[in-house]
Amino acid sequence: MTDSRLQTERAALLLAAALIAVVFVGLLVAAASHRASFAGRYASHSAAADGARGVALLAERLGRPPPRLQHNLASPPDRGTLIAVAPRPDASTSLVASLLDPDPFSPEEAEALLAWIKEGNTLILFTRQPTRLLSRTGIFLAGEAPEAAPGARSRAAPSTVWPPPTEEASPASGGHRLLRGVSRGEVERGAALGRWEPLGDEGRYTPLLVVERGGVRRDVAAEVEVGEGRLIWVGSPFVASNLGLSRADNGLWIALLLDREPGRPLFIDEFHHGFVHRRNLAGYLRRSGRWVVVAQLALLGLLCGWRFGRRFGEPLPTPLSPPEDGGFQTLARVYHHGGHEEHALGVLMDELERALRRRYAPPRGRDLEATLAPAAAERLAMLRRRVQAPREAEPLVDVASSITRWVAQLDQRGAAPHDFKEG
What we know:
- This protein is an alpha/beta fold.
- It has two domains: 41-278, no CATH class; 327-419, no CATH class.
- 47% of the residues lie in helices and 12% in strands.
- The chain has helices at residues 3-40, 51-61, 89-92, 95-100, 107-118, 132-136, 184-188, 242-247, 250-259, 271-275, 281-288, 290-311, 327-337, 341-360, 368-371, 374-388, 396-412, and strands at residues 81-85, 122-126, 139-141, 193-196, 204-213, 216-226, 229-234, 266-270.
- The strands form two sheets. Strands 5-6-7-2-1-8 form a six-stranded mixed sheet, with helices on both faces. A two-stranded antiparallel sheet has the order 3-4.
- A hairpin with a 2-residue loop joins strand 5 and strand 6.
- Mean pLDDT is 64; it is low at 34-48, 89-100, 145-180, 272-280, 315-323 and 415-423.
């Protein structure tokens, strides 16, 4: 492999590393500009999947700036209201995470949150996928509802229907107020209730949003009283997405939900921002989000390109004393397989000269060529020229074979220099 080829391949590797660096910086700039533009106007159409961010900024506009919850939900905050928005499963949930455990709640988190709700706290959960927490509160989504159990009550006849009723015809529960401004299209894209089973004698179910699908009315949002607290479930995360907030005034509906919790600290979270706290690849990917993983892979590629690109094409260090007993051939073979043909020939040539000096022991101060017979000296000079300036049409392996054959002859034959014969 020639030096020009090594330089070309090294330049290509450095160019690839530079492109990876540009992509990495572009991702960071895009994320920063996206966050800055969204902070200016929360109803950005370009951020449809960032639901929790939109709800957080809306809460700030309402004078209730919420802290982002970044710790393990197996240890929820002391008291308050927690809003959790599940991202789209096909956008932020990795295939590995889905295969290992499709449930966004670990068993420990489900138990801790259920106990936290019973203490008098409120969880507003936007999700369209079944979770352990929903099943523990008696909510089973359509398609995964179990067989009817004693005491199970179907919600086929909810108390409110779409479109929102008028003030005079509205039920006393006030559910019509929560229907104002909610986009029907966003709601219909979510999950629907299959069945609700009360938890023993405790628990009260109140439907909040209802749509009609195929002649069957289904609840798509509901409120369940659990102990002294409440779980508000919304089957469509798109209602709380930025695009949903701007398409129809779903922000009003969320604001009304927040108004029902006056004077309580508010926490905002997403499934891929701390909602799953597991020490495995699936939990890490879900917490960090796609662009963070892509950025980290780009940074890893940049570092690898910089680390190996600097050394690419450089000669491997030659040992000061090559190994004895034919070890020089192994060393030359390492150079050969590494693509450093010239250095492999250099190792072989050094070993040939050492073998000649061992065999003929020239006096101190005399050149090796002066000790050799004319034919041997001419052959040595020819090999040196072929190693220093190899001909394009001459395979380097032929030069290496000539050198190794001569070394083998020196080790096996006791011929005098003037008796040396071509192998």
